């Protein structure tokens, strides 16, 4: 009987870890330590993909990732062709929200799935259109004061305090939170791995 492959999440994102756990997985977490500011690309979608590939490859090369499936992800918000990651400080988060309100952006999440046993990987980017509401200046100030927007790409998230300020999305809900499970399934399939093989044993 073949042993169940180990699953490693190359991300410190609690939201990504939560999504995987809610969906029946029990991944280990190994943070890549990749310097995100050192990675550049022509478009937001390509940047998200380059960052995901960098994170997955760095973790896959580590001895502790031997014979495992590594998932690396990174998200950026594409607003008028500009890639917006995590804001540097409260001032930037406030300016970001004032610029986004009432507008539409695209959340781009790069995914890279690395099979360390075979040395093969597959990668792709998931895109979800986000329609921002129009929070007041006072609501923006209150939200920024929570500190939440400093820890998430685009300074917002669907599974936190900013949810009331998002009027709707077109595309994968999970992708906005940080990980597209349908895309992960397709990428695993390209490597000959069935996603159900990675489910944690039922308790």
Helix/strand layout:
Blueprint: E1 6-9, H1 14-22, E2 28-29, H2 44-60, E3 68-79, E4 82-84, H3 90-100, E5 104-115, E6 120-132, H4 137-145, E7 166-170, H5 173-177, H6 181-190
Helix pairs in contact: 3-4
Short structural summary:
The protein has helices at 14-22, 44-60, 90-100, 137-145, 173-177, 181-190, and strands at residues 6-9, 28-29, 68-79, 82-84, 104-115, 120-132, 166-170. The chain is an alpha/beta fold and 203 residues long.
Radius of gyration: 17 Å
Please summarize the sheet with the most strands. Answer: 7 strands, mixed
- Total number of beta strands: 7
Helix content: 25-40%
Averaging pLDDT over every residue, what do you get? 96
Strand content: 25-35%
| Element-by-element helix/strand order | EHEHEEHEEHEHH
**Cα-to-Cα separation, first versus last residue:** 20 Å
Give the overall silhouette.
elongated
Uncertain runs are none
Count of DSSP-assigned helices: 6
Class of secondary structure makeup: alpha/beta
Describe the structure.
Strands 1, 2, 3, 4, 5, 6 and 7 form a 7-stranded mixed β-sheet that branches. Strand 3 (68-79) and strand 4 form a beta hairpin. This protein has 6 helices and 7 strands, in the order E-H-E-H-E-E-H-E-E-H-E-H-H. The model has no long low-confidence stretch (mean pLDDT 96). 30% of the residues lie in helices and 25% in strands. With 203 residues, the chain is α/β, with parallel strands linked by helices. The longest helix has 17 residues, at 44-60. The protein is elongated, with a radius of gyration of 17 Å. The chain has helices at residues 14-22, 44-60, 90-100, 137-145, 173-177, 181-190, and strands at 6-9, 28-29, 68-79, 82-84, 104-115, 120-132, 166-170.
């Amino acid at each position: 009987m073949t042993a169940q492959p180990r699953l490693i999440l190359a991300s410190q994102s609690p939201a990504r870890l939560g999504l995987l756990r809610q969906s029946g997985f029990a991944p280990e977490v190994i943070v890549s330590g990749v310097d995100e500011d050192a990675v550049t690309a022509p478009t937001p979608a390509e940047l998200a993909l380059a960052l995901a590939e960098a994170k997955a490859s760095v973790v896959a090369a580590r001895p502790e990732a031997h014979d495992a499936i590594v998932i690396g992800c990174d998200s950026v918000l594409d607003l008028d062709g500009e890639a917006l990651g995590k804001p540097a400080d409260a001032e930037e988060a406030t300016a970001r929200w004032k610029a986004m309100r009432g507008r539409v952006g695209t959340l781009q999440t790069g995914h890279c799935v690395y099979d360390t046993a075979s040395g093969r990987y597959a990668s792709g980017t998931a895109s979800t259109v986000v329609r921002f509401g129009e929070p007041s200046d006072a609501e923006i100030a209150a939200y920024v004061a929570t500190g939440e927007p400093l820890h998430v790409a685009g300074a917002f998230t669907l599974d936190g305090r900013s949810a009331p300020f998002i009027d709707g999305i077109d595309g994968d809900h999970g992708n906005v939170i940080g990980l597209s499970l349908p895309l992960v399934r397709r990428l695993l399939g390209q490597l000959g791995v069935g996603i159900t093989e990675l489910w944690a044993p039922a308790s």
